[in-house]
């Protein structure tokens, strides 16, 4: 059956004009909500939606709720770029994108309900919002909603996030494969996602039959800034006998890595000749203090595209099971990590190769 014939059938069954049906199926915004719902219901009944699932988004407007810091690149470059990725993913769909600042926890319920109840809010994306009450409301309201980098504990909302557990495990294993046994981890544990990365790091130690001792192998920062990380590493070097210094630092962010390298250099140490440094981030600082940075790139730009695709699936099949998609990262091999012990460990993973 031709596309034209299906549009004609939908028009006849709904009592709407062919042009109205065509505009709805093309994702255009100049149609009423009532007409849109009639056309989509009839199109689904006739199996038309499956054929256009990869085409128009079929919504004209959606709102992204995100922490306030996400709107300032200087405060949270990761979330800021994720929001840009959402906008870029929506360009082909000609959908209007709006934003609303919402705290991660203890969110403004009135503000959320007000935005969600607006007629132009046809769908929503929650970015980094951990408030379980907001998740409950989003599920109960019935409008299509997906999560980015957060989880609905009641499993009613689908979401997409980096695979934080695997990221930590992979990064630590890379250093072990390069022959490093003494690895000091420097992380900011501000959110549960960082706790998941730390759990992956611990798992890598366990798989090597190595004992992870927080007092010797972990430094916890309160922020992702370079200044605090530099102070933590400087204090660590001053308080730790040189024979007990690690051979490598595994750092939870590029700016933190910049501070760590600065502390090492001020202590007269060379990177990587005297101590290797590896980052889990890899987007913001390709080079720090003239040292090209080896890092695991955490998925970021891809999150927006995957969220829009997931939203499209929820529109096509609202009755489908809830899913949580975890995105793998990529390894970028530069010059800040050296191999120790010739022939020890497995060969290093080549640059830009996706890890399993």
TrEMBL record:
Show the PANTHER family listed in the entry. Answer: HTH-TYPE TRANSCRIPTIONAL REPRESSOR CYTR, LACI-RELATED TRANSCRIPTIONAL REPRESSOR
Q: In its UniProt entry, what is this protein called?
A: Cytochrome C peroxidase
Q: Which Gene3D superfamilies match?
A: 3.40.50.2300, lambda repressor-like DNA-binding domains
Q: Which InterPro entries match?
A: HTH_LacI, LacI/GalR-like_sensor, Lambda_DNA-bd_dom_sf, Peripla_BP_I
Among its keywords, does the record have Hydrolase?
no
SMART domains from the xrefs? HTH_LACI
Keyword DNA-binding listed: yes
User: What keywords would UniProt list here?
Assistant: DNA-binding, Oxidoreductase, Peroxidase, Repressor, Transcription, Transcription regulation
Q: Which residues form the HTH lacI-type domain?
A: 5-59
